């Protein structure tokens, strides 16, 4: 499912599994991620950051449609209900990232599709390897409308309307270099190892600033008022400066 390790002042949230695991988001994985984020939040101090990484070929291939079909007992309507249930559960993951009291970095070393791309974009920074992996929103291809918080997240994080149109209405598959040019991610690196190393360097530089986590989280929330409204997050005014 996932693990949380702390090395120095950096938390590593790792989506685990064998090399073929797609890290599809089902209720069990969603609960595991939320538990890890809650633990990181409880242990946060000034000068901490969180990096999310994934084992294998995929960062995340979105919602676990196979689980919904299997758990439905063969009922198409029940499978749809279970999918909607996962959509609602995942909303909490996005809210947790947006309100986490520390900088967050997604290290995308494999494919990130649909809700898997939303998972990556819930972080403050997204780094990606050049040699493998695509970003892809599959909903228009599979016949599924977007949850409101998906749309709000895309509008909050992707500045260019033409990029949002192509990703959401054309279902384009975007590789790392193109993703940088389109403003979908922050930077790209030659391979998985170099991408992880870059993420660690970024976390270490951010940690040197020793920001107050609560203040950091509130400023983050203030950047995305539409998204926070959809997620049900309320901003607070904080003053912790030494006046």
UniProtKB/TrEMBL annotation:
Q: Which UniProt keywords apply?
A: Lipid metabolism
Q: How would you classify this enzyme at the top EC level?
A: isomerase
Q: Which GO terms describe its biological process?
A: fatty acid beta-oxidation
> Single GO molecular-function term?
delta(3)-delta(2)-enoyl-CoA isomerase activity
Record EC number: 5.3.3.8
- Tell me which domain of life the UniProt entry assigns to the organism this sequence originates from: Eukaryota
Does the UniProt entry include the keyword Lipid metabolism? yes
What reactions does this protein catalyze?
a (3Z)-enoyl-CoA = a 4-saturated (2E)-enoyl-CoA; a (3E)-enoyl-CoA = a 4-saturated (2E)-enoyl-CoA
Q: Keyword Lipid metabolism on this protein?
A: yes
Task: Enumerate the InterPro entries for this protein.
Answer: ClpP/crotonase-like_dom_sf, Enoyl-CoA_hydra/iso
What pathway is it annotated to?
Lipid metabolism; fatty acid beta-oxidation
What the entry lists under CDD domains is as follows:
crotonase-like
Q: Which GO terms describe its cellular component?
A: peroxisome
Protein family membership: Belongs to the enoyl-CoA hydratase/isomerase family.
Name of the protein in question: Delta(3)-Delta(2)-enoyl-CoA isomerase
- Origin organism of this chain? Lactuca saligna
